[in-house]
UniProtKB/TrEMBL annotation:
<protein>
    <submittedName>
        <fullName>Uncharacterized protein</fullName>
    </submittedName>
</protein>
Length: 286
């Protein structure tokens, strides 16, 4: 399965597949807190753990997303980077805004286009802006099954790339019974075993590429990228039609920490040992 752009979340498929105009402008608000337990750097006693708080408000046409990454390190003297005396990073901030429009070409074809801007940074935002473009076509094989194809482009001072996008979506708007989306950054299979309960299992990719502070002990005025693949099991409950509460358990088999200098040239790549995590969240649809 080729990749879908990082701009696409599983909610994008829901909006793109849903023709209910009554929901088009009504916003949804979502809060989520994720914890990733300490993971040791390979060939080192230094450790890294993450706490990520997320806030998102969106409707079918616009989405605003803020994330706060609390980065904690242990055994600082044993870390493979920094000055071995002070915490190399305390926190990272991420702010993204995107807009999109899905047009119905004919009964079988729909076309989704989005444009997004984002900044990820430690202290200052200069040279930290990314631009994301996405164009996806949805072809309905039947009322339940969509084939998705298109491309994405991302501009960033460190990394700019264009990628093909291919995916498959099955009953994306349905809460009860089986549903699934295969793509990137999250592929998942859901099963709603009651009118208000659903379980989801999937594979997800999470990353942040952020501008470091001018006085960073890692790379002054440089960049850091933290990325991981994670498998998860999520339990979702809808106590009322507008409310959704969810909890997840995660296993992170692949974890990577990369540094870049101020010109955007990769300096070092560090692998971390597998670890586990958990998350809690709530979503309200007005």
């Amino acid at each position: 399965m080729a990749v879908l752009a990082g701009l696409v979340s599983h909610n994008t498929f829901i909006y793109a597949a849903n023709d209910d105009q009554s929901l088009a402008w009504k916003p949804a608000i979502e809060f989520e807190y994720d914890n990733f337990q300490s993971s040791r750097f390979d060939n080192s006693r230094g450790e890294l753990s993450l706490d990520v708080a997320k806030f998102k408000i969106s409707n079918r046409y616009i989405s605003v997303d803020y994330q706060h990454w609390n980065v904690d390190t242990k055994n600082i003297a044993e870390l493979p980077f920094g000055d071995q005396q002070s915490k190399p990073i305390k926190q990272l901030e991420s702010f993204n805004i995107s807009t999109g429009y899905m047009a119905r070409i004919n009964p079988n074809w729909r076309w989704l286009n989005t444009l997004g801007l984002g900044v990820n940074y430690e202290k200052q935002i200069n040279d930290a802006t990314s631009v994301n473009l996405l164009s996806l076509g949805f072809y309905s094989l039947n009322p339940d099954l969509d084939i998705i194809a298109g491309f994405s482009y991302r501009y960033h001072p460190v990394q700019s790339r264009i990628l093909p996008a291919v995916g498959l979506s099955y009953r994306a708007n349905e809460f009860e019974g089986w549903s699934a989306t295969l793509g990137f950054p999250r592929s998942f299979v859901n099963y709603g075993f009651a009118a208000d309960w659903q379980v989801s299992a999937g594979l997800a990719y999470q990353r942040i590429l952020a501008k470091l502070a001018k006085d960073s002990v890692i790379e002054a005025d440089g960049y850091v990228e933290i990325s991981n693949w994670q498998t998860d099991v999520r339990l979702i409950h809808r106590p009322a039609p507008a409310w959704e509460v969810f909890a997840s358990l995660r296993y992170i088999p692949f974890y990577e920490f990369e540094t870049y200098n101020q010109r955007g040239n990769r300096q070092d790549t560090y692998d971390l040992e597998p670890t586990v995590g958990a998350g809690l969240g709530v979503r309200y649809q007005f």
